[in-house]
Amino acid sequence: MKELLAYGQDFKGNYVPLRTDLSGRALNGYYFRDALATGCGGLTRALETTLIEGIVDINLDLIHVSCSNSSTVAQQIDIRSGTAGAVLERIWVPAQNTVHLYYNGTPLPAMCKDTKWTAQNTTGGEISDSPVYVSLIAFKNPD
Q1: Residue 65 to residue 134: CA distance in whole angstroms
Q2: What's the CA gap between 98 and 134, in Å, rounded?
Q3: Which tens digit of pLDDT belongs to each residue from 112-140?
Q4: Cα separation of 46 and 123, whole Å?
Q5: Which residues contact 66 (CB under 8 A, 6 or more apart)?
Q6: Does 9 share its domain with 39?
Q7: Is the pTM of this model over 0.70?
Q8: What count of other Cβ atoms lies within 10 Å of the Cβ of residue 22?
Q9: Are 81 and 111 contained in the same domain?
Q10: Is the separation of the CB atoms in 99 and 91 below 8 Å?
Q11: Are residues 22 and 44 located together in one domain of the fold?
């Protein structure tokens, strides 16, 4: 690790050190508001939905996923980096429940630069038309 370069604020307003690896890449830079990209949407049936649009020359590394299911049926949500891309995270959301995934320390990396993040409800059989609300937070990484 290099020496501490600066201080940022966490979500509670506490000052925390910004650490970098040997290449100078921020390890916990997601504390900075302008370093985040967010997106959300309600998923029903099998449509793949873009939640965060790609940004030119930027990797969007996922640091948080939240899924809220108000239906009476458990739902399966697939998270992808890019439309019709490989499933990077598969989440089962129990009926009338919320699931949070945190990628502390090691974000879930985008497949490549300029790539959007999408989600799809891939539950088979009889499913509810009540949407599953999904929100994502990604760190904007230029490397």
Answers
A1: 7
A2: 10
A3: 889 999 999 988 766 667 889 999 999 88
A4: 8
A5: 98, 99, 100, 101, 134, 135, 136
A6: no
A7: yes
A8: 7
A9: yes
A10: yes
A11: no
